[in-house]
Amino acid sequence: MILAVDVGNSNTTVGLFDQTGKLSFRSTLETSQSKTRDQCAIDLFGVFRLYGAEIREVTGAILSSVVPPLTAVFADTITRMTGKAPLVVGPGIKTGLNIKAEIHDQLGSDIVASSVAAMAGYQSPIVMIDMGTATSLSLIQGSVYEGCIIMPGLTLALRAMSERAAALPPISIESPAQVDLLGRTTEEAMRSGVLYGHASMVDGMVDRIEARIGQPVTVVATGGNAPRILCYCRHEIQYDADLVMKGLYLLYQKNTRKAKKA
């Protein structure tokens, strides 16, 4: 069984794949940069117990992290718990992507994993959207990663607005099924602006990408904020909650197969 861990700025996702490559479970934990190795181990043990899985059956692991202080912490924890040093997504790992970037290691490992999964599962050209702490849009044509657009994420923008404008209160985006475009209270107006505004931003960027390349694109989205936004978007956008996990599994298979043949 293959353990996949993705450490993001807000959340850490843990997934376990069985021998057939099926995702047995996916669990989301809060990311805290102050966590010790023992605390990370307790979290992982708790996840395995919650889903009735046995950590001793893990035969390999892969780790993606965009939080440098936690990369070594999780790598050491996984090694101690499974007896297997995880493959860490970073420079030197084989992805199958031709990344058009000045410095390849500046591209987030979560975006790399999502792009690999999108390339394998969807028709090119693809706009891959990741809606987490930041919202990113990546263009993939064939096996070429053309570039990326990064914008403030939904909750980040909302928090900044509340913290910087004294008259605007903190609000929740956990709202009714549909939000009226024209709010009649401050909270309703803020919620409309954040949700419809973010959806319009995504739609507008997809329009600009299609205009730039001169053809329509397949749009796939992942990330915790995606379900809140996609219902307000005008483009047809497919939601794939497991895109990062799928990409990590593909990266593990690609790199371990190469190693075994060597």
Question: Can you offer a commentary on this structure?
Answer:
The protein is of the alpha/beta class and 262 residues long. Helices cover 40% and strands 23% of the residues. It contains 7 helices and 11 strands. The strands form 2 sheets. It has a 6-stranded mixed beta sheet with strand order 6-9-8-7-10-11, sandwiched between helices. Helix 1 crosses helix 2 and helix 3 crosses helix 7. The mean pLDDT is 86.
Short descriptors:
five-stranded mixed β-sheet, 40% helix, 262 residues, 23% strand, 7 helices, six-stranded mixed β-sheet, alpha/beta, globular
- What number is the mean pLDDT? 86
Largest sheet: 6 strands, mixed
Structural class: alpha/beta
How many extended strands? 11
Strand order of the largest sheet: 6-9-8-7-10-11
Q: How are the secondary structure elements laid out?
A:
Elements: E1 2-7, E2 11-17, E3 23-30, H1 37-50, E4 60-65, H2 68-82, E5 87-88, E6 98-99, H3 109-121, E7 126-131, E8 134-141, E9 144-152, H4 154-164, H5 186-213, E10 218-222, H6 226-230, E11 238-239, H7 243-261
Parallel strand pairs: 1-4, 4-5, 6-9, 7-10, 10-11
Antiparallel strand pairs: 1-2, 2-3, 7-8, 8-9
Helix pairs in contact: 1-2, 3-7
